[in-house]
Amino acid sequence: MVTADLLRELRSIAPVHAVRGNNDGDPSLAQLPEVRVEVIAGVRVAMVHDSGARAGREARLRRRFPDAGVVVFGHSHIPWNAEGSEGQLLFNPGSPTQRRAQPHHTVGVLDLADGRVLRHEIVVVGP
């Protein structure tokens, strides 16, 4: 579970762009939006906690975020790093803390610069 203290700590290291998840019960997180679209290093990045069912995800996210080059989502804790509809990158970093049925804890790395995605990778962390 994310807390306001964790977000403050992360913000002391680097800019943080976050959306509210279904387990973010800390009342101080109520100000987090459910959906966020930011231009980061010239790339339009959409963020949403739950992308919905796997079936139809590519087309659904393209319709919901037609101008986004990258859509970052979570909820399922299933790492996902794949091209969606019309070249849109769909990216779920998985989870470094609650792997659920996944074999490993993971995080996602996105390197963005000059309006391009330079790197998109799921990284296994921990034992």
Which secondary structure elements does this structure contain, and how are they paired or packed?
Elements: H1 4-11, E1 35-40, E2 43-48, H2 57-64, E3 70-73, E4 80-83, E5 89-92, E6 105-113, E7 116-125
Features:
single chain; 127 residues; mainly beta; Purple Acid Phosphatase, chain A, domain 2; five-stranded mixed sheet; 7 strands; 13% helix; 34% strand
Describe the structure.
The chain is built from 2 helices and 7 strands, in the order αββαβββββ. It is mainly beta and 127 residues long. It has one domain: Purple Acid Phosphatase, chain A, domain 2 (4-Layer Sandwich), CATH 3.60.21.10. The strands form 2 sheets. Strands 1-2-3-5-4 form a 5-stranded mixed sheet, with no helix packed on it.
Strand segment count: 7
Uncertain ranges: none
Question: How helical, in percent, are the residues?
Answer: 10-25%
Largest sheet: 5 strands, mixed
Q: Mean pLDDT, nearest integer? A: 92
Residues in β-strands, percent? 25-35%
CATH superfamily (homologous) name: Metallo-dependent phosphatases
Q: Which fold name fills CATH's third level, the topology? A: Purple Acid Phosphatase, chain A, domain 2
Helix-and-strand structural type: mainly beta
Taking strands numbered 1, 2, ... along the chain, how are they ordered across the largest sheet? 1-2-3-5-4
User: SSE order in H/E notation?
Assistant: HEEHEEEEE
Cα-atom radius of gyration = 14 Å
